[in-house]
Amino acid sequence: MSTIAMPKPDARILAEAPQIIAALRDALPAGTVISDPEETRAYECDALTAYRCPPIAVVLPRTTEEVATAMRICQRFSVPVVPRGAGTSLAGGALPTADSVVIATIRLREILEIDTTNRFIRVQTGVTNLSVSAELEAEGFFYAPDPSSQLACTIAGNIAMNSGGAHCLKYGVTTNNLMGVRCVLTDGEIVEVGGPFMDSGGLDILGLLCGSEGQLAIVTEATLRIVPKPEDARPMLIGFDSAETAGECVARIIRSGLIPVAIEYMDDVCLRAIEAFAKTDYPKCAAVLIVEVEGSQGEIAHQIERIREIADELSPVEFRSSRNKDESLAIWKGRKSAFGAMGRLGDYLCLDGTVPVSKLPYTLKRIGELSKHYGLEVANVFHAGDGNMHPLILFNANAPGELERAEAYGADILRLCVDVGGCLTGEHGVGIEKRDLMSKQYSAEDMAIQMDIKDVFDPDWLLNPAKVFPLDVSQPYRDRASRS
Amino acid sequence: MNPNSKINGPTEVFSPNDDAELSAFLADSYARGIPLRIAGGGTRLDLGALNAQQTLTSRALTGIVTYEPGALTLIARAGTPLEEVEQTLAEEGQALAFEPMDHRGLLGSSGVPTIGGVVAANVSGPRRLQAGACRDHLLGVRFVDGSGRKIKNGGRVMKNVTGLDLSKLMCGSFGTLGVLTEVALKTLPRAERQLTLVFSKVSLQEACTIFASALATPYEVSGAVYHQESAWLRVEGFAQQAAYRADRLKALFRENQIDVIADEESRALWRDFKNVEVFAQSSEPLWRILIKPSEAPALARSLQLLGGDVFIDWGGGLVWYCGSAQSAEVRSAASAGRAVLIRQGARPASDRFPEDAGAISRLSAALRKTFDPAGILNPKLMGD
């Protein structure tokens, strides 16, 4: 069924599995290591559910020191380690191999320090994204990155994938809100990087770790920048009769000197699904934008008026600005239920390419043409302000060959993103899903230096070894590591 | 190189005209083990490696490649003068939000600041507090490493997690990992108005309390500095927004005597703050110390006991210390933070950057060796 290959499991490691499990159990508190197939089933895939594989064992540490102990044992046995947060990756970033041990951060759940004077929060990385902001609510602060999976996803996973969200147009993504980490290297050494100060003065190793997809270290604690909550925020909904005009509206808003906190885009396929599922009163048209602005009542009114002027020049089908909390919720309701609504339509692949904002109209047109070519429907729902697209390719997993066709269509869309000056992935990561497309964006030398860096942190290539880099490209590195 | 430069450095200068020339030159220098001083426009030659045999500069790699105001994106060759970048953006009502400083006043240098130099040194001014540092606005880089490999990383879009983020690593690596040839940066709208609240006769402790309160408000304070009993807070935005924000802050601090400075006068003031003009007339050593904001008053007291003066930026998060104290004394006083020597004064110092703890030091050295296997790029500038 699957088209993405993983390396053949190492027979030596499979044979040693009982000893590996025993060594982990001996060294860690009871209940930390699970290896019963019934229990490890929950860890055999992430949100890219087309690919599954049970690992040798899953380790669920409660402290950094326990992570270090587990890492040391895995290094001693030369067993690959798959770091895992909540398993919400859409790119297969947390997919195990049969010869691997999963180290998950979900029991690292402590809030360690809240310091509003210096504007940071320090947490263990198994806390969920949403719970960080919840902790700060009473203090009048919040943590800005807000990926759609924020109810479930962990800070560890956010750091690994440099997660963004709807509000990153104004507040930046994880790397812009991460001040420091405590992490564990493959030899079990515990390292502090950065801290509650702005910039370290040395090489930006923190910037390198963020978005490294579990290739370099396991992050167990994080110091996060916190931001004062705005006085208020209000969305508006703008409908257009063509995708191109909606794209043009996005560029004109940004060009005007306004930076809304969010600009979300939904196309007609998505709107129809939402209509059927969430019973919203969105207009029936080719494309809808949700634009959110924030500030005081006066600031909000002023920004809405300026955006109305910009939109009016483009003859929108509808322009609606929220007047109160209920209307705000009504405007956001459809967008928030978009992925659930799409799920009702059948199976889908969710892509994550980013394109320059100016190339949105052309890219949307080409995605439509490719949809006809492949005979598969596509829905577009994405963060338009920063060009991070999430085309959802609809297919039937039970129809022979459809997954393969959907994957081929997805690959074409991602190549298109690169061709127009964008990139393969904005916030989901490369994982296994886009691994073999890396050669489209990067030359052999561009990838070689990245793999050289992995060598520095993980000379034995134990951390997530068959991901991010195309297998044939990483083969010499992995072979050399296994021989040494 | 400017023949009048006070600073002695290797006199032979190579300024490649394109990536191919640069790559060939570095491959050759690598093969022959020739140590190089890496420079942009030469405004910080004081920082360069002392035992280099030649200077390699990116100043001939000039020109804006792409500027799309509607996409908030600028791509420029590394040697493009910062002034040209800023003018181009200003014509479209935009700016580099991280407000890079000009080091010429402080260092008595006479080169031309380049955008590549800004990125290589992660140069970030007062607005770093609110908008982030240069590294936060860097979208992608092209560079040539110490063995002549031509490499690109990142791109031109704001959301990008494709492969490892080498752009961040290059930013602030001071030429020790490679020579930048092109940088892509996020641009932002320039505020219509800016207003500065001036607090007089406040102690640093009081100022830091004011800063912490102001920075906990939603009024997006974009500057918070202190010097000799005065504190300044900056707010920006479209006209009525800036006025609203200033009014709210005045109400919050109604116990204090506050004057307000507007627009051009305010901009000139923050230009001086950005360039740390208060220490431009001095030739004493100058330190840039990054610290937890609440620890700034204690640090300032210890530094003042050593003699000299402090200027506080980033709401306490950045302490500039100008004084003749020995490196060891400054580092000891600043042990809770990270001290970088910006101007060495009369006594040449070899330890410009703070020494890192075990693993970070080891990883940094190994990364430098990966990018620069022969150790020819600004050798020993940031450590072995």
Automatic annotation (TrEMBL), chain A:
One annotated GO molecular function: oxidoreductase activity
SUPFAM superfamilies: FAD-binding/transporter-associated domain-like, FAD-linked oxidases, C-terminal domain
Keyword tags: FAD, Flavoprotein, Oxidoreductase
Cofactor names: FAD
UniProt domain FAD-binding PCMH-type: residue ranges: 51-229
Highest taxon of the lineage: Bacteria
InterPro entries with a match to the protein in the record: FAD-bd_oxidored_4_C, FAD-bd_PCMH, FAD-bd_PCMH-like_sf, FAD-bd_PCMH_sub2, FAD-linked_Oxase-like_C, FAD-linked_OxidoTrans_Type4, Oxid_FAD_bind_N, Vanillyl_alc_oxidase_C-sub2
This protein's name: FAD-binding protein
Protein's organism: Pseudaminobacter soli (ex Zhang et al. 2022)
